[in-house]
């Protein structure tokens, strides 16, 4: 195929995750690297290099492809979107608010920013969960007069949550959800991210604006497409989001009230069966399973389970009856916030959209 | 006053916490140290000494009193309970099950073990929460023909939880509680406790038998004394207990449904007012406040707040309206599992019982 | 007494440590708070407040005095040095290079910055180690035509090191020193300091410019005052400085070659005797001992020993014969980098200088 | 080929590492699993299963082969050594002292225990470093009348150290070595290993008997084979061994005195060239390089570099001139203590011995 794609915000850690997910991709050719004015005009290697020590500020275990390090970084403000079939963005929300609509006039934009997530004509696509919401992109194009579109991925705490709530909703009906997240520090990035002084031997029980996102985005993603809009799911959801001394991987303790009641065994079964259709599409970045169910009561653990299926599966365990809710269930999930929850998840969404003709 | 007291299980970390809380106590004189056969006959200093390196296996920041290190440790199996006004025990449940009834024939036993917590004639006393349950001790004595009694402190995750639930129950009525705990590693002790290999960069989402204890003990403690028994509180409570890489201090994310509705402001007010009567008793180990309410949204944090009021206060923050429950509230608490939740909390209970004539 | 003093750079963590060490000080009255233009004109409380959440960005366990929070922060660039008997600075080196000479024309400056440490007429004073170097301040004043002076405290890794090397040098002669430091993250401050993503489950074996400072400053501090200069000590010193996942406290593994040989017992003796004269001065911030010697082979440990003597003592242990050097010794030390190694250490130096007539 | 081999001590973590390195091995067939009496007679899966929760106590990321879980564990005391071409042992030293000589009468034993490391007719083989010492095995067989032999791998801190010292010794001559290790917690195993309460936010500067092993084993490994014995290398070596909050990987700060002087560039060159012959043998478990040299001054880091070459390479960086020693060098290395330093390293030694006719 060979869709030409660009990564905007390529020097930050979120941008690097996109780059790592796109280099050597079978469908996408990473021909555009863009960042702020400060990096523009340098090669990617120069832009990543620490001026003091000469060390490469590349934060991922997999190395960047040598040819990418030679590629010249463009100024995101000047980027010509028409040179690409798709643009991936990893910039702050205020920057996204400005750049993304400009790109979208001509080109599909897959965004990791929250800027447009709650706009009525913008779907937040989560692999296997709500692919039918993609048709909202046509509404968006028509309404805004764009040839491209903007489609953001959700907050990284939402991804794993809705992957488990969706099959529960379908099988048993979903009324109420209480969730406490124990989030790894990589979710905060590196600028400056979480300071070691704040988190070693500690828990920080507040992540600004996170709980609101978890609540609003989850309801939208689980909502029903109704004509040219998505009706928010009629469920109550309450979150407490905390930061814990874990590098990667978000752990979530979930309590749900179902409409029709659910035994732990039945829930485990629907979790295991979830996402087969999506996986069956054979998209290049898709895992073998979207949900991995573990029986060991000490699992899932972020260090041991975040990399299941290459970080693209959410792992669920400790599935139990809950005594607070009617037909209640409780369980624990672990999801990889910087794989499925970020760059590689965005690439998987793009693959889906390419396979359905939205890109290219 | 000078009540002579003993600590059984004095070499373990829980026993050391009792020893540290009792040495130089204004009311209690620590004249008895007892442990298993292996330590019996040695001085306390010898019993604590590592045979290989000669280092003192004493795990607390405050040093043991020199005269205690010279005291000879007795065999717990042979201890004469009549030599003491009160015996504090810090032994495993199976050992407690055997030793405590023997001691209790003549002597009050304050226990950190779970062995007898759920017996109908055994109160689980939590300072400021349910002191009226102490009258159950007379029932226990009458029923069992004992001059002493057994009264255990609760599981360390329960202590902070019920301290916040009690004022909510009184002020607003309490229907349902969902709690996720993020527990420090000291709660598991040292034999072997939590292995570093298991918890660095990790969360372990299961602590065997912990959730059952949290659910059952909380309902009992919040229950109403009815004649010669305690009626379990009519509330639904569901817990998920996790272990996090934190040394000391349990953090708990709590969601509650109230009967009459509660604004965050009203809840903060009842938290602030809670426990004034108890604190007013002026017991030696009592904190100035049982609950500390913090307004900084990033608090409470275990490292920063566990030592509030010398580790004897529970700190509450992030008090918000909850969207899942009718009249819902959510908040986060931090409680010191090895101070108020263990040795020093047990000593405070003993002080209360001494002040009320149950001891001495 | 009541010397009026100021803290420049009062909003950062190093400045806060100075503030905490000076509030309620028996000799010094903290009447000046200064910072960059951004904070100038605000009260200290406003300057510390996070605009988003309203939380106070105060990083120390001891609270700031309420009256300080009401004090107006001045612009460091406009500060009138003549209003103070002494100015404490906690600013970046480039800022120090500009501000400190201006203040020093009229007023003594105690600096935590490295800007002037290696100037020939500037002593780096370490309590109990080289107080005789203070006379260099008169040389500095004469040479520069200043009524004040600049005297910096050393790099925080140096403080504990020279406190142990000094008695070894005096008792046994010192030829060579090899040291590997395992430094806590607080040494890097908070702007941005050490990122959790970089240090959890990790060691970072490089701290830019740290090893050079350790080598040069140690030799200067251990040097001999010779007329109007300090002759660098004739010793060889080589350092490897690493960062470890420890909040506070620097651990240093030291290997030394002595001239006259030293048994571990003799070394322990000279460590124990070190600093008695200095401690005997009875300065308000001085510890009861400058060095604490521990016999337990598992000590010193940063978490257990950093707070010995209120963080103002260096703890030494594992004193052994070294097989590599003639007359060799090896030992491990722990020193509190943000107490004796920072704000409170600077205040102690100021107390010494005040007691000797250099300040006031 | 298909040598039948056994793992003794197969349930512990060191034994599991052997099992993981041997399952699906191209040359060795793992037909024997042995452990203490407690596990004997159970299948491996049953022996690993936690009786309380049913969870598999298997500690490695790579799963055990299903057919191994069905294999019956034998009692190590009754194991028939003649059924195997080679026996790998992962037992405590006191057990090794008894079992290994019995097995060695007929069968080669590759041991991870320290019991026989310092015996004069026992070589401690380190891949690429001293393979010529293998001829000592013939001396051992002759002297003891054994058809098999015992050959232990070294302490895990030694492996990486001698891999870097060997090329320095060969190229520049080696006189003195000072090393401080910062060791990961996995080196202590799990029974009970390092307790989280002891190491979070901490450094423990003592590992019993570790420094003596590092000093003695390194000198033996670097020694010269002289007839029927190994002459210990004529060098002075002094170690301080510490434990840090790192899961896996030992970091070592090394300072060396050379005979002929060495620039950092020359040292980097000899490190890069080291081990080509050994690697050229094409043994199944051998890495592509024994030493990886990194230029980034912030490297090597245990979390980022321990898995280089599948954990079978030692990574060296920060190569600098040292100011304490004549012709001095200093550098930092990271080595994987539970890959090359344990099970997989033992298997690599066995592969070498098989390729040379010592096994089979």
Key words describing this protein structure:
homotetramer, 360 residues, alpha/beta, Rossmann fold, Dihydrodipicolinate Reductase, domain 2, six-stranded mixed β-sheet, 12 helices, globular
Explain the overall architecture.
Four copies of one chain form a homotetramer. Chain A folds into two domains: 164 residues, Rossmann fold (3-Layer(aba) Sandwich), CATH 3.40.50; 180 residues, Dihydrodipicolinate Reductase, domain 2. In chain A, the strands form three sheets. Chain A has a six-stranded parallel beta sheet with strand order 3-2-1-4-5-6, with helices on both faces. Chain A has a six-stranded mixed beta sheet with strand order 10-7-11-14-13-12, with helices on one face. Chain A has a two-stranded antiparallel sheet with strand order 8-9. In chain A, strand 12, helix 11 and strand 13 form a beta-alpha-beta unit. By secondary structure, chain A is an alpha/beta fold. The first copy, chain A, is 29% helix and 22% strand.
Write the layout of secondary structure elements.
4 copies of one chain form a homotetramer.
Chain A: E1 3-8, H1 13-22, E2 28-35, H2 44-48, H3 66-70, E3 74-75, E4 86-89, H4 93-104, E5 108-111, H5 136-144, E6 149-152, H6 156-172, E7 174-183, H7 196-199, H8 210-221, E8 224-226, E9 229-231, E10 236-243, E11 250-258, H9 264-273, H10 276-280, E12 291-293, H11 302-305, E13 314-322, E14 328-335, H12 343-355
Parallel strand pairs in A: 1-2, 1-4, 2-3, 4-5, 5-6, 7-10, 12-13
Antiparallel strand pairs in A: 7-11, 8-9, 11-14, 13-14
